[in-house]
Structure formats: C-alpha cells, structure tokens
Design a protein that fits this description.
Among the domains are: about 80 residues, no CATH class; about 100 residues, Serine Threonine Protein Phosphatase 5, Tetratricopeptide repeat, CATH 1.25.40.10. The protein contains 20 helices and no strands.
Length: about 375
Amino acid sequence: MEYENLDDIVFALKHYSMLLDKFPDNITILSGKIEILEGLEGNLEGKLPLYGPSTVYGAPTPILTLEECLIECYDKMLLICKDEFLKNKTLQKKLLIHIKQKDKREFLLATSRYKDYASAAYHILRGYAKAVCDAREREFFYDWLLELRPCDETAALEKALALAERDVSSALDFSKQKFENKHWGHYIRASIFRKLGQYELAIGHLNVALNSKPDSAKMFEQLRSEKIVCLLALKKIDEAVNLAPNNLQKAQVYYGANDLPNTVRYATKAIEEERSSELPYMLIGRARYGQGKFSDAAKWLRQWTTLAPQNAEAWYWLGQSVLKSDPHKINNLRDALACLEKARELKYADVSDREISLISERINVLEQRRWV
C-alpha cells in the first residue's frame, strides 16, 4: 500500500483507528493498519503521531512509538484472529520487536502468555542469536533460550561455543556446571576443543563419553560422528573409516578425505543395500565430477534430483555436470540451463545471473548458426 506524502499516511492511520473503534474485531481493518505501520519501519519512523488500535481520534492520548503501536496491534490481532497461521505470524513479528529491543522480560512474558507458540519463539530467538556477530551478544541471547528451555542441550552447546570465542575456561566451566560429567557435557567440551583446533583433546573427551556407553542411540551417534570429524582433521583416515558403522558412512568419510575412488566404491555398496537414500547418489556424482568424469557424474546426479526434487544443490551440480560434459552441444546447454534455473528458483546461492546469461547467449549463437 503506497501513499504519496506524510499527510496521506497520518490520515490513513487516523481513519483506521476510528474504524477500529466502531468495528473492534474486524481483522481486515486491523491488518490494513498493521500493513501501514510495518511499512514505516526504517522509513518515516518517528516523523508522525501514532495511535493505538482502539484509540478515538482526537482524544488527548500520549503518542506511541512505532514499536509500541505495532505491539498493541499485534496483541489485538492475537486476541481476535482465529486463523492459526496468521496468529503464529503475528506473534513472531511481536517477538522480533522484543528481541531487537533486547527486552528479555517482555519477550518471555509474551511467550508465556501464548504457550502454544513457545516453539516459534525458540526458533526465532535462536535464529537471531546465530545472526549476531558479537560473541557477548550471542551469549546474552542464548541465556534467553536457556530460560525458555532450561535443559536444552543445543542452546547450551551454542552458548558454550560463543563463550569460547572470548574465554575458553569460562566455556569449559559452563559445560561442567550445566552437565557435570554427563555425555552431553563431554560432547560440548569436545566441540569447544575442536573449534580451537585441539583435536587430540577433543577426542579424549569423546572417548570418555563413548566408553561410558550412553543410553541414547542418538547421543552415541553424535559422539561417534564428532570423533570421525576430529580423526579426519588429524589425517587419521583408517581410524575414521573403521569407526564408521556402515558403507554409506564409510563413503562419507572417504569423501571428506578427498579419496574419490573409495567414495564411489563404498557409496555403490550403499546403493545395493538401500536404493531409496539420496545421499550415495550425491556422493558418487560429486566424486565423479571431482574426477572429471562429467557425463557419468550427470547420470548419478540426475538420480539425486529424482529422489530429492526440491534440493537446490542437486540441480546446481547436475547443471554443472551436464554443461561440462559437452559445452558445444545445444541440447546439453539447454539441459544445463534448465537445471541451473531450477537451482536458482530453489534459492541456491552459487547460481549467478551472469552464468545463466552466458549459457543463454551461447544457445542463441548455436541456434542462429543452424539457420545460416
């Protein structure tokens, strides 16, 4: 919704406020006001008077900040709107305001009032915490997460890693205090040492946890996977392969070690065992691509796109393989172009407009030559 000048916006907001006094439960009217307010963020914010959703125009009401007015509107929407999707979306916007203001109390209060959306709050806050560059700020947001979910192991791990950026001893103390000598505590300490490049120390903690035989199969798998990563970093390929429990994971280890022939060998065995998994096709396709066998790579990567049609990376690598298998054939160019456009449609970051433009130009040139 666009308005030509400030007076138009002021008039529209006052008009919506008056309508809401007459029709307080009208979602369409309230949505219109919210749309205008959201459009003001970072634009005309602070340059015009704002009124809450149920304030009579002309009454001597204190002028609200944009964020206060949005929160009032969001609260009203949550009360009157029965549509689950819109409720969730509205609450997320409200919670984001509290996050930006670093208002922990209001954020937790809003979450407790709408307990059905505690999960949404958790994921919003976690995403925001990950996006923050400063380690101290990340710690601050992870504290919120741990207030939302005191026993959340993932939040504890992420907080410990943020702490480790400025003070390793504090990070280690935190993990001991939070989990004592439990398996997850050793996993966190191993993750800290791995991040610091101290792989032997990381493996020491992982061995303690693995030798104590964790009850959870998921925990055991996480510990084993972390140890494989550390062994690969130390170039102890044979040990890492021996730790992998099946052919698919052995193929992944070899791929991580850039041993492409063994990647293909074990991924092929994995397909013989389980044809429905997409991962071995990806591994063989990427390995063949790395070996310069582009036509063969395309065959395997096409299987990957069949099993995972919404995977943007699959379409990207199929397009690259088809393109490099024979860049002079017009059919190959068309196929590659279609794959790369699909990858771009699925938001794959490595697809460049320039590359797509060059392929299109090449197709046009070859088409023109056909008719000369």
